[in-house]
Amino acid sequence: MKQRLPVQGAQGDLLRLVATGAAESRAGLARMSGLAASSVSLRVEELIEAGLLVEEGSGTSRGGRRPRRLCLSPTAGVLAVADLGAHHARLGLLDLSGAPLVVEEVPCEITEGPEATLDLLSDAFDRLLAERVPPSVPLRGVGTGVPGPVDPATLRVVTPSRMPGWNDFPVADHLRARYDLPVLVENDANLMAAGEARSWPGRENLMVLKVGTGIGCGAIVDGRLHRGRGAAGDISHVRVSSDSSVICACGHHDCLEAYASGAALIAALAEAGIEVRHTSGVVDLVNDAVPEATSMVRTAGRRIGEVLTVLVNFFNPDVVAVGGSLSAAEPLITSIRAAVYERCLPLATRDLEIAPARAGRDAALLGAGSLLLDAVLA
Amino acid sequence: MKQRLPVQGAQGDLLRLVATGAAESRAGLARMSGLAASSVSLRVEELIEAGLLVEEGSGTSRGGRRPRRLCLSPTAGVLAVADLGAHHARLGLLDLSGAPLVVEEVPCEITEGPEATLDLLSDAFDRLLAERVPPSVPLRGVGTGVPGPVDPATLRVVTPSRMPGWNDFPVADHLRARYDLPVLVENDANLMAAGEARSWPGRENLMVLKVGTGIGCGAIVDGRLHRGRGAAGDISHVRVSSDSSVICACGHHDCLEAYASGAALIAALAEAGIEVRHTSGVVDLVNDAVPEATSMVRTAGRRIGEVLTVLVNFFNPDVVAVGGSLSAAEPLITSIRAAVYERCLPLATRDLEIAPARAGRDAALLGAGSLLLDAVLA
DNA sequence: TCCACTTCCTTCGATGTCGAAGATAAAGGG
DNA sequence: CCCTTTATCTTCGACATCGAAGGAAGTGGA
């Protein structure tokens, strides 16, 4: 079962406020939405009538009458979201508040091309829906992250270096043809940033770094994901100063990614005679206090930090959140912090927080849910 | 005469659309505002009644009946705006569409402190109003740019390196006490960016560089000025790679400003035995094809370009506009362009335009008008 | 226990906005 | 020149939103 969400006008805003947890009573909705209390009551009545909201007991008093707590009906619908990686797809179903109902990871070679990959994805969605969701609960939207740039205007993948066969493929159209629902297609780092943003309420400007096998980055500006022309957020191919000279996959010399990514560290360790297979292995070495590994992670952190100084001065964010598998190595974030604090303007670092990412492994799925909800309630 | 603009609700939006030139008929307003044509008619009627709009002949037909052209009444009001520099203040009066009525430059030492400077400014405003504006035309708002960071929450100047005595001074409150009108206080580079933005219709993401005695920068993100925590846009104290080592006024080594600003070039020329007093002198030397000067400007452009690569990859703007007195030296922009195009991701430079600023010497005043209009019509 | 006070929520008349329909005014083609 | 087409603008009834007033349901202090 699939079905467009039947909301119009102010109903969407109210539903969104309940979904995101910003408000959970009529009075709270009135405060947050700016609508008059009377209007809120009317719209809420309609949303309850439509089966999208339910009244559930009463909340805690703020000094007067207790509010009647509102929450999304569990039957209001679900969202199907995924995050495509090079060899795996992480996918799941969320309720309309963005909370995961089920998440799983399936092997999936993105090099097999868009049709095969997206069909595998859709089949997995359909299976999960059949297994986990009563037929009466409709699917309301579909979204996926891809490991490459997405043109925000057309929702096509553009010049993806790691996705042969995907160039200019109309991902959104392909999914829409199957589901006829609001569809979201977004770069994976951007999704992660959007997901992370929900873990930092009140912070309007965030940089979210993903340091894993590669290096990704997304930016939240004034509370909204910054897309630019579709390529925004890249920092992996920034030139770093170095004595040596390494050629990056992108064709340039001395890219940050060629020095500070998990893949680069694995290669450097191999040269030092230490064999490691995955980025997690590097983290293990650091936790075992292997000096070479620790030193290399420190250097990587410093290099990332040096690039960040430029961006922190310019963008002046509230938070730099560092995630990705390599962020589990504690010296990484410490040395990023040291480089930024040493070199940035005091004004820019005065209230800046450089901290581990909070949203966890499902950050990208949560981000997809957050952005998709906006599309569903548009 | 001063007076808050008596607009409410949709009237403000409509007036703003006329003021910015986005629409000039009722039908155009309906298209741009999203309001129904009938509502537009009603509100426009009220605005004409209030003397803020006037009907002025008819516009050009788009295939049917000719629209009745609307424009702001010349008696609707004026804005008083200024841009404080280190030794001069540029100030003027604008009509509500943001067009300058009169602009002049007065000597003004910002080191004399906030009270003296702001009083000088206010006196100049009052004089211009008395001389140039009929008493029946009310002042609607006051705004100024300052050469230092401004906290967007409190509109106070914070830790300004070149404005001794101004730290934490409540500039906005001081002006509001005298005028009791909407007041704008903003960093000068940000004002320039806002002014430049109006010269690039349709472009939503801009970086605006001001290369003069110092180096300033402002960013327009999704059509709005990005403030961050008040320090956004700074690129002058980014570290550049260099053989030598120069100490900047900020206390760090090898800041961009210490290598690529007009002041740095004047110092470097002096070392080469060539005496120049102002940045304009450097431009003259370049235009006279003095090889040392040309070479130095090229190097400065390349250094600026190298810093820009990081920001262009990350921010992915539509336009980088280069202004400031040194931008008149043609090799500057050429070498910036070369550095950015050589090193940035193709996706980021695909539709990127790196061009001379269009807004001219009054850019900051125009920007102040643009931002102030938003405050006046809020 | 009673009562003043706060907060939550609804009722009701006034006002704003909408869309459909029609009046007005011009362009363009036979 | 007339008629069709297109666009602009206004009129009018339906609906949404607002604010004020008041009822409902709590809290906290005398």
Explain what the structure shows.
- Chains A, B: This is ROK family protein.
- Chains A, B: InterPro entries: ATPase_NBD, ROK, WH-like_DNA-bd_sf, WH_DNA-bd_sf.
- Two copies of one chain form a homodimer.
- The radius of gyration of chain A is 22 Å and the shape is globular.
- In chain A, α4 runs parallel beside α5 (171-179) and α6 crosses α13 (363-376).
- Chain A starts with 9 loop residues before the first helix and ends with a helix.
- The first copy, chain A, has helices at residues 10-19, 26-33, 37-49, 114-132, 171-179, 188-197, 257-260, 262-271, 279-287, 291-315, 330-343, 346-349, 363-376, and strands at 53-58, 68-72, 78-84, 88-95, 100-107, 139-146, 150-151, 156-157, 183-187, 206-211, 215-221, 224-225, 319-323, 353-356.
- Chain A is α/β, with parallel strands linked by helices.
- Chain A has a five-stranded mixed beta sheet, sandwiched between helices. Chain A has a five-stranded mixed beta sheet with strand order 12-11-10-13-14, with helices on both faces. In chain A, strands 1-2 form a two-stranded antiparallel ribbon.
- Chain A binds chain B through residues 149, 158-159, 205, 217, 219, 221-222, 224, 226-235, 237-239, 241, 250, 252, 306-307, 309-311, 313-318, 343, 345-348, 350-351, and chain B through 149, 158-159, 205, 217, 219, 221-222, 224, 226-235, 237-239, 241, 250, 252, 306-307, 309-311, 313-318, 343, 345-348, 350-351.
- Chain A binds a DNA duplex (30 and 30 nucleotides) through α2 and α3.
